[in-house]
Design goal:
It contains eleven helices and 21 strands. The protein is an alpha+beta fold and 415 residues long. The chain folds into two domains: 251 residues, no CATH class; 153 residues. The protein is rod-shaped. It starts with 8 loop residues before the first helix and ends with a helix. The N terminus is likely disordered.
């Protein structure tokens, strides 16, 4: 059940709407009384006096909890019939001074969840247990402690419907109990909101401490539709003001480790390689991780195409011959690395090496942006231009002394 904000009559009975959503539950009759939310005696006072006192509480409640520095808030929703009962519980531990907030939720159905907001506003969240239990911080919503300490009962608009019913001791504090009973006390607008259900009974209880904050508020509503009756009871307790500590949850380290892992839209670098008869070839790609995981058709594929193995090319090339596959929707960079053995080329000729791609349209060769690491014997070509990434995807690339290749080709043509 979502947290409610604002002071409107509709908020007071948001639980009623939840009840109507559960109309598929088995029907029932003879529900028990609305609970023992009342005081230890039946004292009542002047209605105007009670209304004035409660109207003031709607202002002082949140102010007091904020000034206390910290507080625990527990919100429980019970939806029951004669045969079934469902519970939802949300608990907040709030430190207003540091900004640290912890929230746990056990919904009516599904996995429980926990959220922790650090002092810098980062929210870590986990659902239940299992390998996919964590939510990345950028996919979470900020926790709002102001929302948690805001009263659910609309005291500012319905205070005149409550009567003072004496006192009771709660958590060691003697507090004043105010009760609104029966359909006449129903907040405005509730009946109109239940277009397919009839509200049969209503009770609201607010327990106010001498300090001016509500220690407990309870709303109980019985509704019926097509002969089936549901009871929804929501209780909110505000406890341990000034004595609540917000510690790091024991799963926080794991959540932070998960957050450091790349997300589906993050760009990562992956390296692929193949070992040929003339040495290692590598392809390094920068692309979004969702394009690379699970492994896609990417990497170098050794080529045995005889067109690249004629005597002329063999006399000027180094390293293995391969085709390189790297085209993705999100690719940003492709780096081809061709390793060679020093025995394949004289040291004075290493600087002449270029990575070349045969252009089937022109019948000639395209030279890629090339660097040579003469100490490690690696020829590297880097492609970042979008047009070239598409153009050279899947093409065969070789490392060769291109200027020497041109000289020898011209020498052959003169013969």
């Amino acid at each position: 059940m979502s947290e409610r904000v604002g002071h409107s009559p509709n908020r007071t009975l948001a639980a009623v709407a939840l009840c109507c959503l559960l109309v598929s539950l088995a029907g029932c009759s003879g529900l028990s009384a609305l609970g023992d939310d009342g005081p230890s005696d039946n004292e009542s006072t002047d209605a105007d006096e009670s209304a004035a006192q409660l109207a003031a509480v709607s202002e002082t409640h949140a102010d007091y909890l904020r000034s206390a520095g910290n507080v625990t808030v527990t919100r429980t929703v019970q939806v029951s019939t004669e045969t079934r009962e469902l519970d939802q519980r949300t608990r907040w531990r709030i430190d207003f001074e540091s900004g640290r907030t912890y929230k746990s939720t056990q919904p009516l159905g599904g996995d429980s969840s926990e959220e922790f907001q650090t002092a810098n506003g980062t929210v870590y969240k986990r659902f239940g247990s299992g390998p996919n239990q964590f939510v990345r911080p950028e996919q979470t919503q900020p926790l709002n402690p102001e929302q948690a300490v805001r009263l659910s009962t609309a005291l500012d608009s319905a205070a005149d419907r409550f009567e003072r019913r004496g006192t009771r001791t709660t958590d060691g504090v003697e507090a004043t109990v105010y009760v609104a009973d029966g359909l006449n006390a129903l907040p405005d607008g509730v009946s109109e909101n239940q277009s397919t259900a009839t509200v049969e009974d209503y009770r609201g209880v607010v327990v106010v401490t001498p300090s001016g904050y509500v220690i407990n508020e309870t709303t109980a509503v019985t509704v019926s539709r097509e002969g089936q009756t549901r009871r929804v009871r929501e209780t909110v307790r505000y406890t341990d003001p000034g004595q609540t500590s917000v510690e790091d949850p024991d799963w926080l380290a794991d959540a932070k480790a998960f957050a450091r892992q790349p997300g589906p839209g993050d760009v990562v670098t992956r390296n692929y390689s193949a070992e040929g008869e003339s040495g290692l070839v590598e392809l390094e790609v920068d692309a979004e991780i969702q394009e690379l995981d699970p492994p896609a058709t990417v990497g170098p594929q050794l080529s045995e195409n005889p067109i690249y193995r004629n005597d002329l090319l063999n006399s000027v090339r180094v390293g293995s011959i391969a085709r390189y596959y790297f085209l993705f929707d999100t690719v940003e960079r492709a780096e081809i690395r061709i390793h060679y053995d020093q025995s394949q080329i004289a040291p004075e000729n290493e600087s002449e090496l270029r990575v070349a791609v045969r252009n089937d349209t022109t019948g000639w060769w395209d030279l890629l942006n090339t660097t040579v690491d003469e100490d490690r014997n690696i020829v590297t070509a880097t492609i970042t231009d979008t047009e070239n990434l598409e153009k050279y995807q899947g093409e065969t690339m070789i490392a060769m002394r291109f200027e020497e290749f041109v000289k020898r080709l011209r020498g052959q043509s003169r013969r």
